[in-house]
Amino acid sequence: MTTPNGMPDNPGDPENTDPEATSADRAEQAAEEAAARQAADSQAGQATEDEISPELEAEINEAFADIDPDADGDGEVSDVEQQLAERTEDLQRVTAEYANYRRRTERERQGIIDTARAGVVSQLLPVLDDLDLAAQHGDLGEGPLKALSDKLVNILGGMKVESFGAVGEEFDPEIHEAVQDLSQGDVKVLGTVLRKGYRLGDKVIRTAMVLIGDPED
Q1: Biased-composition ranges for Acidic residues (predicted)?
Q2: Which CATH architecture fits 161-217?
């Protein structure tokens, strides 16, 4: 039963409700669409992970170039010879993929080691700064503090940690942090070193803090 304006007496009655227009159905449809998008994104990510690197693809192609399906040289490729060639290709592909996996794993492992080592060294840099200041003021002497400083420097040297930033060294904005430029000419060198820089292998852990000056005659 409807009113003169076309509206039912009880709009909330199930018989007068459009199933396709209910909020529950819309929510369910939205959930299904979200699940479909998530599945598509997952498949796209998996495809990216499964892509073969150009280096690996080159190795595989080079290995396949040496495969001759006509193993007996009679000019005809039998079913057995074809299957043998295919199995050889599969074996070489698996071997190349495993070699690529080992190289990638080794790089990742070394990266984790270098990051952890750099973190430890960064925590020790304030101690090295204090020892440098003590040495500049003549407080190290030849006592226990001097022995401790030498041991710490030797340990870090064994870890391939090197300091840089010496007076007269050419200024390099990549590794030197300039607090003030007191130079007058075009050639810029380190006039004063306020804080040494440190590198671990080829990686700069901390830049050197310096004042820029002119080179001495």
Answers
A1: 48-79
A2: Roll (2.30)
